[in-house]
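A quick aside before the break. I want you to see a complete sequence-to-structure record at least once, exactly as it would be stored in a machine-readable document. Don't worry about memorizing anything.
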Amino acid sequence: MKIVVPALTMLFAFAMGMPVHAQSSEWEILNDEATSLYRQGRYDRALVVAKMALLIAEQALGPNHPDVAKSLNNLAGLYYAQGQYELAEPLFKRSLLIREKSLGPEHTDVGTSLNNLASLYHIQGLYVLAESLFKRSLAISEKALGSWHPEVATSLSNLAGLYNTQGQYVRAEPLFKRSLAIREKALGPNHPSVVMSLENLADLYRKTNREVMAKDLEKRAVEIQAIKR
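That is the input. The structure line, written in tokens, reads:
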């Protein structure tokens, strides 16, 4: 079972005391370096860059700017990736509070922060807290983006994954199926995200003793993965 976990986002804050073009270049360099290091698994160096980005954003824009929230989310995502959940949690929470206050409680960035914090609670076994946040994230995505948007599929999949983890298969199955249907329609039947949905649903089928159905989905997932892109 796979869930979408926190990841580095684009950094848009700018340093003070520099020409606009220089500021932009500085942030592009920081963003490229942090993202590259993150993808390589070089988290120690990525942390240094992410902390620098946060400091510059706070100094340039103040502690409650949405771009500061992005930097906080990036830093928290790095701690999450290393299993340092006690360091990630307060950063995710602060990012969420800034976004709620500066962007409004129904903004899609708020939904992203809710999903990230919920994912943190999920992996820690704090299922009640995770469920509440996943549900709120889903509601925001549906209202802001419409019922057939890929981000809605992600929210559905994450909530279903939470239920699947707890053995609540009756609740998980329709959410996994709806997530799959959205991804097939919005992204196409051979998109990599469809593979994730197929694998999630296959995992549920296997846990509920539907081996033939599970194998059929896994076969389709393998066929999609074999397509040259």
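Two observations worth writing down. The first helix runs from residue 20 to 40. The chain has two domains: 1-133, 146-229. We'll return to this after the break.
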